[in-house]
Amino acid sequence: MKKCVFFLVAMLLLNSTLNSQETVPVQDGFIQMLNQLGINESNLGYQPKGYWTRYPLPQDIPYKITAFDDLMAEPHRTYDFVRNMALSVENYLKPEYLEKNNIGLLQVAFYCGVQHISTQHRCYNASLFAEIDSTKPMLKAIKDIYDFTHFEWKYNRFGEAADFPLIEKNLINEFSKIDKDLQLALAPTIIHLLQAYKFREIAMRNVDMKKAERVWRIRFLGETQFDGMEYYPEMEDCAKAIDMNSMIYASYKLMETTERLIKEINKLKAEKAINWKVQNLNIMTPIGRIILSGSGDDKHNHNDVLLLIDFGGDDEYIGSAGSTQSLNQGVSLLIDLEGNDKYINDDEYMPSQGSAVFGTALLYDLKGNDTYQSKRLSQGAAMFGVGILYDNDGNDKYEMWTDGQGAAYFGIGMAIDNMGDDDYKFWGDGQGYGGVGGAGVLINRSGNDSYWAEYDSKKVNRRDKDHSKGGQHNYTYCQGSGVGRRGDITDGHSWAGGIGILIDLEGDDKYVSGNWSQGCGYWYGMGYLWDGSGNDRYESTSWSMACGAHFCLSGLFDEGGDDEFQIWYEQGVGMGFGHDYTITFFLNKGGNDKYKLQENGLGYAINMSQVFFFDTEGDDTYITGSKGSNYGWNNFTQHNPPAVGTMYLLYSDQISLFGDLKGNDKYISIDMETGKEGDDKRMKNDGEIYYPTKEENALLANKRYYGLGKDFNTEGNWTIEYFRDKMGK
Length: 729
Known about the structure:
Helix content is 24%, strand content 27%. The strands form seven sheets. The protein has a 16-stranded mixed sheet. The longest helix has 28 residues.
């Protein structure tokens, strides 16, 4: 009887506990803030009209990324848009997936790169097909190249076969040194490279080669375009003439055939007693050189490579490794299977290390602690093409100047590192940089990684005198930045920025950069930084961390960990900052985080921007300088009423939100004159502030300004539906 009474009491207590939990329903913090401001989803975003005089209309700006207009109109879809890319990395770069499938790289390239440039592709496969001669597989594959390019296979004179050159005989002699099973594995890839060559030629069929030659020599594009300092008409002509769908299809061939071939070679290594040291070959074909290199420590210095495979050893690659070397060499594939390798390029005009100009190129390094050093347009970069650097495993170091580590103009440039603790250093215009018409992507799936861009203008002169005291800091345009050509202030040729993406899924990472970085947009560009998990540190100088100016989209998303964010310089603005029709999201999920910002940010919108800053949980600390405007501030008094030429302000909603949803938080202000630290009088735990207040709003001619800073009551169970992970793995 006592046991029954005890059980009954226990059940009653359990039901009471469950009922008490049910009394705290999940509430959407985003919707709550919109309701407090008297607005709803329909107020989000922009759909510019032709009567918005002086507003550079999106329909009049060429080379926009496919998602730009619709995300501008529905910005609350941004999280799903970026999350889908991060999920493709999570799903398709897993070692388990790569081991069983041949399209892991292709899948990631599609979701993070191709879909932004063309919606006419899918990512099923690359439609690879090859008929192989079982007796002379490589000879037949090479003959196919000669037949397709209409080069002579057998020479003759005076009605009889010539004594020399004897192409077929010489090739048979060279192939006799290569293991037959290896030949059978290699022959399909040679045929697939011929197919890639075919579609690269189709892509270039309407391009004026003289104009292409001039474009080839342009190596200061990023530095000259953001404020329209130089107009390249030949570049615009090439953009109109090139067939990018065919170029992308050629790149598909490279990606899938590479994964297939690596599996075949690894299978041979496991099952066959092949002497890999002597598997050496160096032959010319009409579309480039084919090189096989054994398992020793080799030095490669070639400028006409169609295919280079190194089977092992600590190797050194000089010059244009795994890149298009000229307009006549539009397809290139380099595979290094193992070893601690060095890739060195000292020629600033030579694309290198997985980069392409008017072509497609792939550098695939399977494993080893590798070093990559170059100057410009390298390490996963493209201009009118598709360039990919893929490093599967190892603790790697990447160093270069500009236009790389995932950078593109009128094409797709991707730098992908799957596993290992990696170190990235460069000057600017990279590390996930979408220049005009480009998708630039830097992906690092796992490891404790470091991303660094030179911010000191005394060391590298890219000085931003308008947005740093005395011009001490540089334009870096990196770590998820999309930047266009602002022609409205010069020659009237405005080009949309591309999309720049940096995705890092796992590890304790560090991001250091100068101005315009870490989820940044400029002039119809899109820039996103996504960090999945780990205790991360973000440092920058200004206009960074979910920031932008002039009709752009951007965001920084950190999915977990105890993170630190710091912009502690005079004129240092960021952490959710938008100017002139910028829409940006700063989202930090989980962890006890620390923010240190000297000036404006933390949900700061000016000139009809929409900025959304949310920290979803944790005991957080916010430290701000006394001169800054923060916590949902907006400039509601400026252009109110609008002046002549700014009538579009009448049809736009400026929204600035700062929300900390959970935790016991600290808000600290530091007097920039005395250095004295004290409680911030503007914001506190469980506090809120409006911009404008009801009294201020009553005096405005244009009342479409909505600003709210809110630290949510800790007793609530707050979330944001828009920022919920909805996709299945």
